[in-house]
Recover the amino acids of this structure.
């Protein structure tokens, strides 16, 4: 007897007759079930992967852009130099070591700003803008901390005004340098130094 074996649908030859052996229905249903399970598994993996891709985007969407106070298109300028407090500033006295640290910061910044006269004379506008931005960044924390250390509400108010006057004058200096206007740069430099000295007086240093 000739015998041929194979998968579902293979022929078995016996004499002159031939029979077709077909896979049982249970086997076909099992195969279909396995195929469906594989599809479900793949769909689940794809859904999870899509969820993971959404997470970074959602986090980034909540990030607030940094503000630029000197014009230009950059939204990531680190020179955030505005008064953030609202309402009354709480009195926070400084110890001698902290007070000396903040005094040193302002003294260095005062010297750097004083030397901008040379940059204006040479029309070194990029150098001048670099000094302005660096010193505004360096001074900001010390200025705000010194304002908090002023016990008198009246003096605190004066210190905040001088702080904002200095900020405005330095921004005007930066704009004059960007536009390469020498006389404007000189004028706003003078007003910036005046506001600087008024600020240090108002915080008692």
């Amino acid at each position: 007897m000739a015998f041929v074996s194979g998968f579902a649908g293979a022929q078995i030859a016996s004499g002159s007759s031939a029979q077709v052996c077909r896979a049982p229905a249970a086997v076909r249903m099992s195969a279909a079930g396995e195929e469906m399970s594989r599809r479900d598994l793949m769909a689940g993996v794809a859904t999870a992967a899509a969820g993971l891709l959404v997470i970074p985007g959602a986090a980034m969407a909540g990030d607030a852009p940094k503000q630029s106070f000197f014009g230009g298109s950059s939204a990531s300028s680190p020179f955030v130099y505005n008064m953030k407090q609202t309402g009354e500033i709480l009195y926070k006295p400084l110890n001698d070591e902290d007070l000396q640290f903040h005094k040193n910061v302002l003294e260095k910044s005062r010297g750097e700003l004083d030397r901008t006269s040379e940059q204006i004379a040479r029309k070194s506008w990029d150098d001048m803008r670099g000094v302005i931005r660096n010193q505004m960044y360096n001074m900001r924390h010390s200025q705000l901390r010194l304002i908090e250390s002023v016990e008198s509400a009246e003096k605190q108010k004066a210190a905040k005004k001088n702080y904002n006057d200095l900020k405005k004058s330095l921004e005007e200096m930066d704009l004059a340098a960007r536009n390469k206007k020498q006389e404007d740069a000189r004028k706003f430099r003078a007003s910036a130094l005046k506001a600087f000295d008024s600020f240090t007086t108002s915080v008692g240093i």
Q: What stands out?
A: The first strand starts at residue 11 and ends at 14.
